Q: What sequence folds into this?
């Protein structure tokens, strides 16, 4: 098994000031753990990285097609989007299609995650709504599943609801775990989320990557939607979107909160799961990029838009560069 | 040597999601390392914890008294203040006294660090000025040193200026290091700051604590100013201020950026230096409190205002409590 060094440091005046430990698991198309950083069995929460596997039940049920939805809806359902007008419009359209409205979403409002989304909302003089929540696409898809399956819509986000039972079954199937071995908690958006070892997260993404050339129809469609609509998966200045764009969809990444990140390297059929031990997002993006470099999944010369995420200057209140956040090696 | 466990975790649904490693050194009145967490010789940056030792040269020079300044100015010079009107007024008064103005401060502006300061500034419709910078008191004192010593005022913040030469000598004397062994970098506020092993930071605070009963006049005055003016050292909702208030000045703490924190336990004559390895502030305050508990420096039943900093609930976008940040044990 290949050992990866993915730790990230923050320096000041050339001296390391802070250190982020990074764990990772890399699983190949044969379901084998082929590379690791730190502890590849680190047990943590999957957070928003689980989204593709939470929307698959709706797609597989036929409900998605009954609504005549397409790749835009599919990409947004997998997204941690930036709350930009285009994202909000699709989420609203999804709710309209099933006769529901913003207030039916169980997620709370928050400021748009993307710089452009935040600025446009500020300029409009309006306050953030639940549609701006980065998970509003996932929630709209869950409501659509309840709608098309004829289940109650109220409480769709809670453990025990049929929508969540199906999501858990999907997560179990893709990660190779028994449902009873998956930890359950409440996510930032109020919905059930899942805890497990990194290796199993990587396994699910390896299987997803594998579908790009050879796989079940629903997963293949979902991956294609993410690959061809990077803006809808994140936003105009969001890391995942830029990574998908710059690799022309060969690499599909999905951010999670608290430093967890998963990647499907479609042309190699491998999956990667990364966790910054302390949960810091500033270490997350450089660690993902370093992992992809070590796995030969990026061009030797990193495109400038990605390079900005690999090494980030630290500036002080005077605007001087006083250090940087970068891979330790 | 006593081993302390100061690591902090973030949980979700009862399962650990993220883990912050914490290093610490505890030095007693005899200059000995008596307790430690992780690596007590961890090399990192002292940041704002150095402030007391950066203002001592002015106090010892007599310049401070020539200006007829008192404990308010002294406490503010040691502060990472909250940018509240009282802080800003004292910083302005200090500049007025030496015929200077806000624009002479080398620090940049930033939003006030305290909730009250930020709200009052927002309500006033004004933008943050350099006086709101949490370090404006330190900068005003440095300018006052240049003024009273007859040195140029321009460039007072840079390596090589006499003010900074005296600060480095002071830091070397109190930490027990040779000046040449201290790393130099630029702080968030643009001024020289210092890198060294945690043990030496703890040594300086042990010596400072020791002065409360038996010590040099200038340091004793400085410590008394911090003990009797906790609001000026931080602000109305700032951790250090609350800690000093709740211990009636027996414990004097000084926050630094990137997870570094120093404490003088005055009635025991000991000093503590703590570093959250990854720099996260959310782990810093609980780690300081756990260290003080393990060193018997806090009441057995923690006052509610401090307890809020020991265990902090994590809420999601719906306002539900979904986990907590707390000591690992």
A:
């Amino acid at each position: 098994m290949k050992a990866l060094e993915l730790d990230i440091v923050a320096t000041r005046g050339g001296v390391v000031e802070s250190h982020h430990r990074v764990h990772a698991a890399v699983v190949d198309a044969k379901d084998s753990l082929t590379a690791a950083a730190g502890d590849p069995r680190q047990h943590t929460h999957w957070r928003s990285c689980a989204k593709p596997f939470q929307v698959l039940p709706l797609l597989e049920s036929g409900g998605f097609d009954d609504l005549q939805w397409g790749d835009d809806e599919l990409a947004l359902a997998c997204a941690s989007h930036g709350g930009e007008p285009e994202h909000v419009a699709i989420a609203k359209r999804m709710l309209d299609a099933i006769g529901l409205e913003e207030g039916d979403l169980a997620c709370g409002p928050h400021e748009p995650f993307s710089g452009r989304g935040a600025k446009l909302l500020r300029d409009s003089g309006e306050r953030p709504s639940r549609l701006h929540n980065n998970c509003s696409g996932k929630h709209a898809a869950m409501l659509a599943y309840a709608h098309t399956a004829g289940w109650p819509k109220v409480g769709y986000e809670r453990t025990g609801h049929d929508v969540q039972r199906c999501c858990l079954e999907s997560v179990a199937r893709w990660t190779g775990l028994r449902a009873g071995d998956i930890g359950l908690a409440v996510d930032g958006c109020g919905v059930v989320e899942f805890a497990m070892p990194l290796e199993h997260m990587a396994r699910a993404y390896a299987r997803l990557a594998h579908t790009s050339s050879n796989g079940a129809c629903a997963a293949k469609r979902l991956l294609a939607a993410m690959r061809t609509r990077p803006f809808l998966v994140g936003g105009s200045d969001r890391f995942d979107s830029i990574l998908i764009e710059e690799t022309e969809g060969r690499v599909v990444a999905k951010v999670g909160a608290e430093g967890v990140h998963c990647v499907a390297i479609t042309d190699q059929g491998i999956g990667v799961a990364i966790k910054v031990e302390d949960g810091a997002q500033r270490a997350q993006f450089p660690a993902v990029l370093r992992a992809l470099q070590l796995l030969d999944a990026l061009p030797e010369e990193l495109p400038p838009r990605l390079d900005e995420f690999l090494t980030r200057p630290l500036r002080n209140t005077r605007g001087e560069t006083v250090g940087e956040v970068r891979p330790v090696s």
